[in-house]
Design a protein that fits this description.
The chain is α+β, with helices and mostly antiparallel strands and about 325 residues long. Helix content is about 45%, strand content about 15%. It has an 8-stranded mixed sheet, with helices on both faces. Strand 7 and strand 8 form a beta hairpin. The two termini are about 20 Å apart.
């Protein structure tokens, strides 16, 4: 199934559905030529698949650039599919039980990470634990600022394509609030957020190069019932009020906006990091919760290292196979 990922939208559904979800390195798959590099280059195109093999075969077919592409990588020599047949060698793997952008680590996530870390150690890899160099509040504010600004531009573009300015009734309430905040932001606010994101990426990538792969949970909590993120009536009313404030007053409410979207950061406390840094990151269905729900484990590597991720993912698929797993909730 085709998908794209600007904050976890390949890897999160892969975790929920017991599938493989790879977000490639920024620039590995083309984003255009007609679509700009929206979300500041955070979005990567690929798919969710049943197996590591399928993800690798699809990337063989789609990777590469086009004339004028802004983010490009050297063309891959050899086949990603062939990489799944090779041993990964002895890798330096760092795992973390930090909550990331969340406030606590769910017991099922702890169990899943420790299980996979133990298995990787048994396979001969050098496995060590570390803390994530992450200022969660600054990251959330930066990410939210950039998302608001991009949403404002996207809604403008939609209006131009439609032949009339977009109105609140045309989009969901949350989208409209993001658009209003984006229109209220000053250029300096957006530039400062972009600089902050770039500085974070540089520091994170420097830290990441002390190991080969980072192992974390994919999501913050096991899959929730449909509708769990629906805003309660009182919060929807407050957001409508926010959207009607003049620009100056709305800028003063940025902290409230971040707070309103905190459940999204709690649900996806790890995936957004690789969107900002551009790293390749894959969710593998390596755990079932006590209720029998799939729960993904996230492997993130250095820029351009999809081949290594495929080798390691294929090794884990062979030793902790998931093809025959069926959640008790599944039909058929």
């Amino acid at each position: 199934a085709a998908a794209n990922d600007g904050g976890g939208s390949i890897r999160t559904p892969a975790s929920a559905c017991g599938l493989v979800g790879l977000k490639p390195t920024r620039g590995r798959n083309p984003s255009g030529p007609q679509l700009p590099d929206v979300w500041w280059g955070f979005i990567a195109e690929h798919a969710v698949t049943r197996s590591v093999r399928d993800s690798a075969a699809l990337l063989d077919a789609t990777h590469g650039g086009y004339p004028g592409q802004l983010y490009t990588l050297p063309r891959q020599t050899g086949s990603f599919l062939e990489e799944t047949q090779r041993e990964p060698g002895r890798l330096r793997i760092t795992y973390s039980l930090d909550p990331g952008l969340g406030t606590a680590v769910h017991p099922e996530n702890r169990k899943a990470v420790e299980k996979v870390a133990t298995e990787l150690s048994r396979l001969g890899h050098n496995v060590a634990q570390a803390h994530l160099p992450l200022n969660r509040q600054r990251f959330m504010e930066t990410y939210a600022t950039l998302l608001c600004a991009d949403t404002a531009a996207l809604v403008r573009a939609a209006g131009q394509a439609r032949g009339r300015a977009a109105a609140a009734r045309d989009v969901e309430l949350a989208t409209w609030v993001l658009r209003c905040m984006g229109e209220a932001l000053r250029g300096g606010d957006v530039a400062a957020a972009l600089w902050e994101a770039q500085q974070f990426a540089r520091q994170w990538l420097t830290w990441s190069r002390t190991f080969d792969v980072l192992l974390t949970p994919t999501v913050g909590v096991p899959s929730l019932p449909i509708g769990s993120f629906r805003l309660p009536a009182a919060q929807r009313a407050a957001m409508r009020t926010l959207s009607m404030l003049p620009a100056g007053a709305l800028r003063g409410q940025r902290a409230r906006l971040v707070e309103a979207f905190r459940p999204a950061f709690e649900a996806s406390p790890y995936t957004m990091i690789a969107n900002v840094t551009g790293q390749p990151s894959v969710s593998l269905p390596l755990h079932l919760t006590a209720e029998g729900l799939p729960l993904g484990i996230l492997l993130t590597a250095d820029l351009g290292e999809e081949a290594m991720l495929f080798r390691l993912a294929a090794q884990l698929e062979a030793t902790l196979p998931w093809a025959s797993q069926r959640a008790p909730h599944a039909c058929g």
